[in-house]
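Lay summary. Proteins are chains of building blocks that fold into shapes, and those shapes determine what they do. In this project we predict the shape from the chain. Here is one chain we studied, written as its sequence of building blocks.
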Amino acid sequence: MTRAALITGGGSGIGAAAARRLAADGWLVGLIGRRPEPLQAVADATGGRAFPGDAADPALLAHAVEQLAAEAGGLHGLVCSAGAGSPGTAVDQTPQGWDEVLRVNLTAPFLAARAAVPALERSRGAIVIVASLAGLRAGPASVAYSAAKAGAIHLARCLAVDHGPAGVRANALCPGWVRTPMADDALAGLAERTGGLDAAYAAATRLAPDRRPATADEAAAAIAFLLSDAAAGINGATVPLDGGAHVVDAESVAFLPDAP
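And here is the predicted shape, written in a compact code that computers can read:
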């Protein structure tokens, strides 16, 4: 039986890597993204289906779920990977920036789940919401993004509680720094100060035990596992993918041999 998964943010970064990994595992992937050209390129490379548009569009989500379920005999997975950031504190973040960051990172996964859960209950499928380490820890000038990702983590927990009895699993993957176009943009200012993107990633991960960013393929492998039957006992979990950064005590880093 062919399994089908809908991936939002499927045209680049973690979403595109997840599409490639799931397709290699035999899944039919449906991809939602705002940029038609890269979205179609990923669909062509994976044998998937492209649904260009906004990941927070209820009509588009319902259409994609219906089409995938019709083609594969059901929908078996949902990956919410669309993301957007807008730096700022509570004082200098604009209401418009706040609304957009929450819409992409929190409202869109809610709407995707709303569209997909009935089909996932029939197949006893699974949901992975790509949240962020920023949803577990507060960083500077990140009030909208951190709040939205914290909400996305709790959305996954609520989905597990509400729909777990019907066989649906929902988990949140929390990447730290992952080398993607979105992360490259976020590190552009640091790259100017440190001498390039490689130096910026090294600086951003210097206190993580692994001392490096993750790759999009590593994130995709975690997503594939969480959707698989091997993860059948994992529901409502928050899974860090950050090289161990989430375990570091900020008050003790001065004692590290290579502390800045």
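What the prediction tells us: The longest strand covers residues 169-175.
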